[in-house]
Write a structure and sequence with these properties.
Helices cover 68% and strands 3% of the residues. The protein has 391 residues and is mainly alpha-helical.
Length: 391
């Protein structure tokens, strides 16, 4: 028997009967998978750098409640409150991202990039929070433009995108820049923008990749290594990652028994999928891929039932970001694309990454809830809105 009656009109009661329970189950399974895989991957890295064996695992458990609270807390929000939250988050995270450029070597310089702000013994990566916030603000500004053509929603949006791109390139964080740009392209396509508008950021994305190849040595090295695998260094991370998959076989060596993770500096973050391949085998990789696919497809099915342009564009952008990030991480680990320092949502170690994933899924849950009372400020047929956008 369900503990909450359908007639319960409290905040929790309405949330329980309008939120997608299957999507919540998918998030829970990802969080549990993160605990198991982090337990297998992080001790080897901790011992190699000379800290306590369970250093990263303890911190993962410290960040985990934050992610859970963000998922639950944000999923309770109405569409209006979710938008207000994202506007505030975008302003704060953009300011903090700009501040990282001033932090210098003693503040946020890690691996040659100024992406972090040091807070005590913890590092905060503000750009992780720009990503979901910008997706919702994009949908809001596009909706305002369609509702009232006098509102300069698109110019404001393009100006925001230009500032974010400039800050992220200066850090530099090209992977995050391209992820945000790709999500933005999908959103303006969903909003029914003219093809000329859609092609503008497409050209920017392609141009950015070319400029990055010419300006940044580490980008050129990764692309050249990908295009010429025969000459690749047999002792770099991608080589050890591929050996991990080969050693894992079909069923894996078993949790904690992998040996190639000893040579992966980022086994607990960017290359955690290689640990899955070695210790849980091909079968474990397939299950994990299916789990991510389930969350993405289930979210898309919920969005497809909506007749609201704001929800379609906002949730569509969030889902695209989440799915593309997971795909990029796993594809680069198996050498299908050039390597890119990008975490695997909910699995990789990192408080900023875990919190950002929690915000993303919390917002998706909030935006795809079945509304008992229509919010007229945001409603309006998608077809009518598209017609208005093209007129």
């Amino acid at each position: 028997m369900t503990p909450i009656a359908r007639t319960d009109r409290s905040l929790i009661g309405q949330w329980f009967w309008t939120v997608d329970h299957w999507l919540i189950l998918g998030v829970v399974l990802l969080l549990v998978s993160g605990i198991v895989i982090s337990s297998a991957a992080s001790p080897a890295v901790a011992l190699r750098i000379g800290v306590d064996e369970f250093h990263f695992l303890r911190r993962h458990f410290l960040f985990l409640p934050v992610a859970i609270l963000l998922v639950i807390g944000l999923s309770l929000l109405s569409r209006r409150h979710a938008t207000g939250f994202c506007i505030g988050l975008l302003v704060v995270s953009m300011l903090l991202s700009a501040l990282t450029l001033l932090a210098g070597p003693e503040g946020g310089l890690i691996n040659g990039a100024s992406r972090w702000i040091q807070i005590g013994s913890f590092s905060l990566q503000p750009s992780e929070f720009v990503k979901p916030a910008f997706a919702v603000v994009t949908a809001w500004l596009l909706w305002l433009r369609i509702k009232d053509e006098r509102v300069p929603g698109l110019p404001i949006l393009l100006a925001l995108l230009a500032v974010i791109t400039l800050i992220l390139i200066r850090q530099p964080d090209l992977g995050m820049t391209m992820l945000i740009l790709a999500g933005f392209i999908i959103q303006i396509f969903l909003a029914g923008m003219p093809i000329q508008v859609v092609m503008l950021p497409c050209g920017l994305l392609i141009g950015l990749f070319g400029v990055a190849y010419m300006m940044f040595d580490h980008v050129a090295q990764r692309v050249d290594r990908f295009l010429s695998p025969v000459s690749a260094n047999p002792f770099d991370q991608i080589a050890f990652a591929l050996k991990s998959f080969g050693n894992g076989g079909w069923l894996g060596t078993g949790p904690g028994d992998g040996r190639f993770k000893q040579n992966l500096p980022d086994a607990h973050t960017d290359f955690i999928f290689a640990v899955v391949g070695e210790e849980f085998g091909f079968l474990g990789c397939v299950i994990l891929i299916c789990l991510f696919a389930f969350v993405v497809v289930r979210s898309l099915l919920r969005v497809a039932r909506q007749d609201d342009l704001f929800i379609t564009v906002a949730a569509g952008g969030l889902i695209a970001q989440f799915g593309m990030q997971a795909l990029i991480n796993m594809a680069s680990t198996v050498a299908l694309i050039p390597t890119k320092g990008m975490t695997l949502p909910f699995l990789s170690y990192g408080g900023s990454s875990l919190a950002s994933a929690g915000i993303t899924l919390g917002l998706i849950l909030a935006l795809t809830r079945r509304s008992a009372i229509p919010e007229t400020a945001y409603t309006g047929g998608v077809a009518a809105a598209h017609a208005g956008a093209r007129s």
